[in-house]
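Long-time lurker. I teach an intro course on protein structure, and each term I like to show students one example going from raw sequence to a predicted 3D structure in token notation. This year I'd like something fresh instead of my usual example. Would anyone be willing to generate the tokens for the chain below so I can use it in lecture? Attribution to the forum is fine with me.
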Amino acid sequence: MGIAACELSQYVIRPTLVYLDRYSPAAEMMLLATAATQSALGATLENQEHHGIYRITAERHAALWDAYLAHDPERASLVRGLASQHAFFGAPHLELTVNLRYATAIAWLLIEESGLPLPSPADRQGQARLWRRVFNSQGRLQDFLTAWRHCSEAWNQVA
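-- Reply from a regular --
Happy to contribute to a lecture. Here you go:
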């Protein structure tokens, strides 16, 4: 069992994007759909290679810090502010699993770092292509579309 889509969006994704000064409905929907596809909204959080609801590898996490955030100290400080004060230094990749706001910030920055345009919230095919380019190069577009459909159906049942 994962996290309810509406609660993940309302309490984690939206506030994190606002905190980063990157909020848009398209960004919120892209991250929600990515979490739905990557981990069924947290139903599967961890394996040896991928961490958290966005299933980010330790290598991608480290590379984002080294190649992207290292060149933007202000943004790096914002993101670091989301991480646990002491745990981050001992096990930084564990933050991707146990800290939803930190994981969301990192997932957004992976999208931003790609330089690819963010599709509109209604462009599911475009979102699926962006997901595949940023999060799962071997992923099938249909997997993204199916996960998003299940996520939105569950959201509509709650609403």
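Some talking points for your students: The two ends are 19 Å apart (CA to CA). The chain has a mean pLDDT of 90.
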